[in-house]
Design a protein that fits this description.
By secondary structure, the chain is an alpha+beta fold. The chain contains five helices and 18 strands. The chain is globular.
Amino acid sequence: VEERETPQSEISGESSWPTQPFPLAPPPYAKQGFYPNDISSRSAEVEESLTQKFQSMDFQFGPLFIPPGKKPTATMPQFNGGSDWGGAAYDPRFNILYVNSSSELEWISMRESRPRESITSYEYGRQMYQTLCSNCHGSPGYSSSNAPSLEGLGGRMQRSDAALILENGKGQMPAFGALAEWEQQAALDFVYQTGRDRTLNLKELETTWGGQMPWVATGHHEIKDSDGFPVNAPPWGNLTAIDLNTGATLWDVPLGTYPELEQQGLPPTGTFNMGGPLVTAGGLVFIGAAMDERFHAYDKITGELLWEYQMEGGGYATPATYEVHGVQYVIIAAGGAGKPGTKAADGYYVFRLPESDEQ
């Protein structure tokens, strides 16, 4: 690991360390950093369009770990990449780690906030939302595939039900019960478009979440080309085998494909993926995870795709295996939706090898 000089924060009142540690070995298994020449070249038209697009954008490009500032900062891997919560699979016999990752460009920026001695509950809730909620749910006016938008929530959910979720959490959303009651109500006022006529005296109230921030993040935002695909060159998702004895990459293959690009004769590009792999003693790596909504089986030694099954929804979960009466089964939950933003589904898929007299 070596220390390298890195760009410094331009945000007033924020001091960033002059260097960052960069591992020299083993090599990264997901793409790190983004430069304008890393744009997608899947077609000449797309490449030309994206080249013009990036020339007109006021972006900070470069290596990993650029402190976000007033200008949009390109981030690679994205906030939900390279690897996410799905984890990795480990083969103890060969000491090999199998891990999937995503590599799509996103951006983040900071904007100035103005702390006040008194403020409406709605406005205080807006500042809380920008700091605590926007990274997942997106900033007002920006879409996000990371979590459902909260715009128009009043037409879909009773405020009392939303208050329970805020207090206790639900699914991937953590609990915010540590917030003071008035802070929780302020957050709900912003989401439900109320509280503009209720003034808070901030000198008399003790904040829990850190108070009003002089700078807040705008959230993290995707960038897509005119056809809705990532703007950086593929692969956009990978499955990698790593030798833990040496740190060397044994193989690295795209994980998943876009059917519309597949129909154009393009090789698999990989996709954003969520959910981890399963490795078996029989020589296979099973994984869903990709946005093609398929369940895949790879050769654990070569990385060759041996088999795949088209499910009705994305398998954004880690598969499991078990044995009943001497027969091995593999199971995966396929609920779809979620951060990948594909259609919702509701099913479990269970597989086994056929009996000798079966087709």
